[in-house]
Amino acid sequence: MKKTFFLLAVLIALGLLYWGFSRPNTARADKTSVVVSGYVPYTLARQIGGDKIALSMLLPANAEPHSFEPTPGDMVAVRRADVFAYVSPRIEPWAKDVLSAAGPETLVVEAAAFAAPSDDPHVWMDFNNAGRIAAALAEALAKKDPQNEAFYEANLAAFQAELAALDADYKSALADCQSREVVHVGHLAFKNLTKNYNLSLSSLAGASHDGEHSARKLADLVKFIRQKNVKTIFTEETLSPRLSAAVAEETGARILPLYTVEHVGKGDFERGATYGELMRRNLENLQRGLGCKA
Hints:
Radius of gyration: 22 Å
Number of helices: 11
Mean pLDDT: 87
Distance between the termini: 82 Å
């Protein structure tokens, strides 16, 4: 009998340790607890919620969002959250497992549900969609924290104004360019962006990093670059540079980065790089790479 009680006590102690270590570090009783899947909802929630929310992100900085596997601790964090925000099951196929852990009082925001229909799941690359997603987050925060509704609405209005300025600058800066061919040695993440500004996009892989980078695909891309006399190729900051370096060596094209926002490097995460900041970097590099006059 004593042995049984001893084992039971050990199990209870281990359980308490597990649950304690699994709690998100950002939890604060006086703030709205917001857990997000990755950097897109993270940066938007941070801009809208400011210091009124306790924000945590499941996906580690620089991790690949399409193949991430949540831990038991992630499940606990989502269950205890006031708001859980993610992009979509297509971008984050693991989200269905996390959603099953959401608590009865957790408000769930699926960002893509508020975006215009598109065959490219990277819906936030359209500024109109980014505004709709931010509005959905502001509404969810206001429901959980009505006393700060005016604060969230003011931050949303500022973000909407920033998006309008971005759109105007993209239209102006990309209106007159030597080339309109955006060749991306990465996955198909920029279709919504290039479509909106009358640019043509070619990509080595599909919508996910899991696309096969076969020798045939690589050879076809090199042939396309030579035929179109493309002077610049684009890659993603968080991808291995080997593929883009190989293409550049074969074609003589220079390499410039583009930022998907869905995952960022450790430095950008620690600095809290915003959606607007990353999209302005994209504009600057598109201007340089395409030889735009503006």
